Amino acid sequence: MSEEQNDGRMSFEEAVHFVQRQPGDAAFAAVPVFGERTDDEEQRAEGARVFILAGDGAGSYRLQFIAGPFFANAFAAHETMAADEIPDSVRELRFLPTRVEEAWLDEQVQILIQKLMQASGCMTPEMPDYANAPSPGASPETVFPVSFIGRQEPH
């Protein structure tokens, strides 16, 4: 078994079966978003795209898609997709088993990821405690360009 297969993450299909088994089970994947690429080897992610699979209690599932910059109370995307709307690019990701509470979905993206990691039991000592750190945030009216989440502007 390769290291990738033994890291606790599941394929999309495994994650779907996981979330359909027990109400309250969820699985998530997070993908960092980088700004304009530079030659800086120390370049850090500016935000993230978070994909949360959750069962609906009736044998189906949905995907919560949340994307936004770190340390901001504004999102570039915050939507729910039905099972048949989930793009192939998401189906290629690997998911960690976790649980999710509805209130977490309104948190800053780095705090949402921290809570999902804590609920998965995969927290590492290297991960900062964003939930208890003071941070300035953008106002709720702030809007980020659609290009931030990897979509093209409509023509």
Summarize the structure.
It is built from 3 helices and 5 strands. By secondary structure, it is an alpha+beta fold.
Shape: globular
Side by side, the strands of the main sheet go 4-3-2-1-5
Number of strands: 5
Number of helices: 3
As a percent range, the share of helical residues equals 10-25%
Distance between the termini: 47 Å
Mean pLDDT: 81
Largest sheet: 5 strands, antiparallel
Quaternary organisation of the protein chains: single chain
In total, how many domains does the architecture comprise? 1
Q: Low-confidence parts, pLDDT < 50 over ≥5 residues?
A: none
CA-atom Rg in angstroms: 16 Å
Helix-strand makeup class = alpha+beta
How much of the sequence lies in strands comes to: 15-25%
Order of helices and strands: HEEEEHEH
Account of the protein in words:
- The chain has 155 residues and is of the alpha+beta class.
- It is globular.
- The chain has a five-stranded antiparallel sheet.
- The protein has one domain.
- The longest helix has 12 residues.
- The protein contains three helices and five strands; from the N terminus they run H-E-E-E-E-H-E-H.
What's the structural blueprint in terms of helices and strands?
Elements: H1 12-21, E1 25-33, E2 47-55, E3 61-69, E4 77-82, H2 88-91, E5 96-99, H3 109-120
Keywords:
globular; alpha+beta; 155 residues; 24% strand
